[in-house]
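Q: Entry one of two.
A:
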Amino acid sequence: MKMKMKRVDFISELHTKTKRNYVQRVVEHDKAKCAVKAKQWDFDYWDGDRQYGYGGYSYDGRWLSVAKKMAKHYGLKAGDRILDVGCGKAFLLYEFTQAVPGCEVVGLDISPYAIKHAKEEVAPFIKEGNATNLPFEDNSFDFVFSITTLHNFPCYDLEKALSEIERVGKDKKLVVVESYRNEEEKANLLYWQLTCESFYKPDGWQWWSEHCGYSGDWDFIFFE
């Protein structure tokens, strides 16, 4: 049976605050070499020069409004277990402890550097690992989310990651990925990205929902 994709929008306001020169990203540096360095998920990606990734990713409180919107939308409460798949430095995970006092947070990321430099208040709750094999029991989290992580997987690992998110979560799940709706957004995405392996329009992500039995929500980042 075809599953209808459920779309929500929690982070477009943050995304659109950043101004990007897409063509400059391609011509100013050797983008292929930058991508190789970015995919090491080490200092350069998080805190090095902008051509390798974030250009410095430090806590500034911007994710609190996102955590509050998610908490309200999903009715999260004290005692709920929340998992962030691909948590990075866990800034959003920390904000959940502020937005939902008494919740239990868990994060997972592939980057030892990000974990080492995670928000210290939640660092003890972060595991190093891969989304393709989540080290958690079935239905063990009240809310599972993954933001700008799953598009970094090739199709064979994307299938595993989506299936794993479905397995460990109960009824509240959210996946946010980069996408495009037209050729201009596709070109901008290709110019800007450093780590993406899976490029699909929303209807392509819809196909992945059906293929993997993923029952949660989606959100998309578009490069307009």
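Q: Entry two of two.
A:
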Amino acid sequence: MKKIHIIFTGGTIAMQTNDQGLLIPAVTGDELLKSIPALQHVGETSTQQFSNQPSAQMTPELMQSLRKEIISIFSKNEIEGVVIVHGTDTMEETAFFLDASLNEAQLKNNPVIITGAMRSNDQPSADGMANLLAAAQVAANSNSKGRGVMVVMNDEIHSARYVKKMDTSSLQTFCSPQYTALGKISHVPSRDPIQYTQPAARLTKTIDVPRETFEPPRVDIVQMYAGADSTLLNASIEAGAQAVVIQAVGASSVNLILYEGIKQAISKGTAIIISSRSPLGECAPVYGYIGGGQSLKSLGAAFSADLPAHKARLYAQLLLNSKISSSANHLDIIHRGFSTL
């Protein structure tokens, strides 16, 4: 049987309602596993309690600590798959960070699966135990090799790049709305439980993290909306942001006031990445009017393609952290990195 290592970080799956009616962290990973006897038929499991907190408390520094744990685990050549139990609110960010920063040599071609729950284990129709079992099945499946980091929720397998949380409470919240899921978990007895619909591939170019201590540079997100100005953009730069992700409207547009702010920011050496607040479609330089994507491209802005702002921010932090091994300035690093997405 394959050896699967399960890392518990917390989230709704490890919460219960207390005497005051408040949903709080209350259950350890080992306590969760005791309620899933079917796991013994999936593989030989080992566990680790990394933390027990809501995923809103997750940071890039903690993501880097998880990354180092994964590298250490696979370096011993015993574990063939890792499952990370994580809160759902920032699950897609942690998944993307890990997928963008773990290369095949570090993963040893093994999968990393992230899962969690939308309902605590003391609620009716709790989903956490089924999700955890499914994640372990995917981690133990030979066809999961070479796919990097994936999210398994509600019997679906999603890539770290394209997965999104689309609903605040539905069990069907995680999907890949612009693409299809990588596969699903089948409950038909005569079939392999893991049904992939796409060939194995890494979907995001990985970025080397050159030093043990990850010190993510400040990268902020500023949203464009009707009537927006450059106050928040200027505040981010004054706070030390090396790059700012502008969540533009449509394909990649901003108003005249924010355009002028972007122009000044780039002239002073701050990298600007344009993303879109639209959940579907690609962020690209389409319109030629002042404030449109073509005018922003002329200023020197980069574009996030299909990445939403929160994933583009993490990718920018990884790129900027990697410049310690490069003579290029951070504007060039951002442009080169996002041009190869």
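A: Comment on entry two: The two ends are 37 Å apart (CA to CA). The chain is about 30% helix and 20% strand.
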